[in-house]
Amino acid sequence: MRVASAPHGHVYIQHLADPANSDGVSRLPDPTPERSVPGAPWWPLVMLDVDWINDHAQDFDVFHLHFGFDAVAPAELERIAAALHANGKPLVYTVHDLRNPHQTDPSIQDAALDVLIPAADQLITLTRGAAEEIQRRWDRQSTVVPHPHVVPLDVLDRPREQHENLTVGMHLKSMRTNMNPLPVLRALLDEIHGRRINLLVDVHTDVVTPGMTHYSQEVSELLASVQDRAEVRVHVHDFYTNDELWDYIAGLDLSVLAYRFGTHSGWLEACYDLGTRVLAPSVGYYHQQHPGVLSFDWDDQGQPVAGQIAAVLDEVDTLGPWRATGEERIEQRRDIAATHAEIYRAALVGRPS
């Protein structure tokens, strides 16, 4: 069975396959876009195009869309779905994001979902809560398939370094649209006083460099104000390589996510792969990805609810291990691959050629 997975080069899609390649599914490689984005050589998606579909319909049996359609207008998505169906090709759509983390206005993603979810022959999502929301909003059933591992299998069982003090990390990255890090960071800075905690604050260079796209004077000033605190380390750097990212996450005992909105998190999965606890806000469906994700709430003013972060810092050292094993993730991969093969077969049966 030949599947045009868009985008094939993303780590999530790479880890849908059976580790032994025995699921009978082959996925087309991403065509190289004329102008690819550094770190995302598959974007913009060449496959997500009516002409490409018409010219290459003989090369695939199923079209499986994941993400990467942020800049595609709903009317164009309608034409893409129509082109697939005119060529007798079923559309499978995995609903990763019910709220796009890169868009302030939720109506943009809603308009795209209003096309894709009704048009798809089969729907997949990652959590029960997301499936229930899809059923409620669009009256469509989805197959719930959990997020596969993010970290490579040969890295999963590496031993973790033990720390004398609890090591808490918060990565501001490039201040993605759905992030609200400053209230959380200020709460952490207040709460680590008098505790055996080291706080690592990472941020990309573009956030603290005047004139760059994501520059924030407020972030820069706050980070500068804590540079001399012995228990705080600020690390400004460009994008990590994958290996650097795994080392960073594995060096934390707790990774704090400061998302104002969202649906699912690959970062959370990487933390679970490496044994780093996660503190995430009670938005989206992060807490359904794995039992044991720690929680805080946002109040009406966009601040963490008082006392919740302190309570987590009090308890996190007393909790047991929270980590996937390589064996568990391999078995999960087999199940995920088998489920996807079944979904593709069902899509083909339901779509006349």
TrEMBL record:
Highest taxon listed in the record's lineage: Bacteria
Protein name: Glycosyltransferase subfamily 4-like N-terminal domain-containing protein
Pfam families for the chain: Glyco_transf_4
InterPro entries hit by this protein: Glyco_trans_4-like_N (IPR028098)
Keyword Transferase: yes
Keyword terms: Glycosyltransferase, Transferase
Domain named Glycosyltransferase subfamily 4-like N-terminal: residues: 50-147
